[in-house]
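Bench notes, afternoon.
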Amino acid sequence: MPQIHVLPKQIAELIAAGEVVERPASVVKELVENAIDAGAREITTEIQRGGILYIRVTDNGCGIARDEVPTAFLRHATSKISNADDLEAISTLGFRGEALAAIAAVSRVELLTRQKQDLSGTRYRLEGGQACELEDAGCPAGTTILVRDLFYNTPARMKFLKKDVSEANAVAAVIDRIALSHPEISFRLIRDGKQTLCTAGDGKLSSAIYAVLGRDFSSSLIPMSNQMGPISVEGFICKPVNCRPNRNGQYFFLNGRLVRSGTATAALEQGYKNASMVGKFPTCVLNLKVPFGTVDVNVHPSKMEVRFSDERHIFDCIYYGVKTTLLQSDPRPDLKLTPPDPRVGFQNETYAQPKLTVSAPVKPAVRPETEYRLRDIMAQPDTAKPAFLDVICDDPASRAPQAPHPVYVVQRPEPSDNTASVSPAPSESNPNSTSETSGPDHIASSQSDPSAASKSVKDDILAASATSAEDLRYVGEAFTTYILVERGDSLFLIDKHAAHERILFERLQKEQDVGRQMLLQPLAIGLPKEEYAILTEHLDLLAKAGFELEDFGDGTLLVRTVPAPLRDENISEVLSEIAGGLQSGSRNVAPEKMDHLYHTIACRAAIKAGNHSTPQELLSLAKQVLEADDIRYCPHGRPVAYELKKREIEKHFGRIV
């Protein structure tokens, strides 16, 4: 029978290391938190090859005394707690005394440290948890820890690491969160020799948000503060119109520590109830301060799971703070109308033509010869006007990217519309200028199916049913959402969005070819680190769905092509929604992930409830639904159609018994 024995020290340390060190991001988190506990005001993190090859964390904290350096790398050695009572009111980020020992057990570690009152510092080197050198060294006040060749002595664990760029993104996400939780500290991150983050450390949360999450995110926030007894919450929340399709933009901190709390999330979203759109989630950066004795952070090794002694008070503080802030700081938005530019717009009183709504900038102006060409084209009969017109100057050299004159795309409107749009192509010298817009102004031509780019949703519905629909009789449309058609002795009620969504989804699954729409110029989209990381891991998968994306670095993706059905959608929101789905189903196999992409494309491209539709379009859509027995539910699982028998109706009206 098996015998019980004590594991050797080396094996026990490797097991303990597995509880703390999962990947380079885990190492960085532990080392940076130690630097914060040491009172540092400047912390620099440098990584190479995603942190697998090299990690360096430098701080200007209090340093470590010479005689305490070897002790610091022993298991359960810590300066932050001394007895059991201290566990009831933990005020530091670290307290278990396992991090340094666990890191040293699976890497080559070098420590340089000096206290301010000492004339010389200390250098301590370990390999695989075994001490190698301890000597004097010249170094600035504070501590520098270098971690090289992570998992060099545990090759089995190396197989579970992801690509270098994915590991680097995970490290960047850790630094981002810590920087948001401590705006009074200046953080720097250097990736493969390039600085990608630098916060001011001025104590202003708004400065940290701007540096970490970018201008677009920070401009959508409003300040929030609330206090109920000893519990307080302060930070920023977004305006209801800026809610996102997932929860990746929610950052909760408890006494300066990043946490995941279902109570905090529920309170935030309840505060936005009836103010935000269905399916959208608010974003926030909130720091919750509670008495240390009322919360237990010693629940999980990651220290992100916490337990409150009174969940209700936490919920109320956040909920009422959100409600009050939205009531006071979110006024009714102003509507500003921009008159058309008279230099581009042209009206002929004797010829009835669509008006041109111009969004071109005042500078640079359209050259006169371009304006004359536009006038000549618009004065032609309808039959002579092409669907798409590239209006450019006569000089062929102006087609080059370095030309100073903008390129315009004029799209003929549908016969039922009376407007068309003229918009300038974004400047190639400033790729980030495209991050604000992602509509049809950026679209040039379809890459794989040119005809797909010019078909609207209406054309798509009508073209999908070429046969006659004489066996169906169109009755009407209820609430601009539900189609009513009659066939034989049955009345059918059909959800037009759910029906069209299912039809598109089935078509995409069958054809495996979405069709691509090339953009006039690459669209630069900045994303939160979690979304950026998950999308860069699935670039090949996204390419199959029609997205041609390029990693531009520092949380930005360049979009070169989009699926043709999404040519009129906000691509930034679509990618954010896709990232949320891929993140939640990260363990799914590739076919399931492709289904998620097709589902997102179909949902976005389908005709929306509330949109105006002609009887011909609705009848064609109903025919497609009723001719296919497998179209019963939309990809979300909602029913597509209900059948009401004539006999059942007559029963209710007492015509038959």
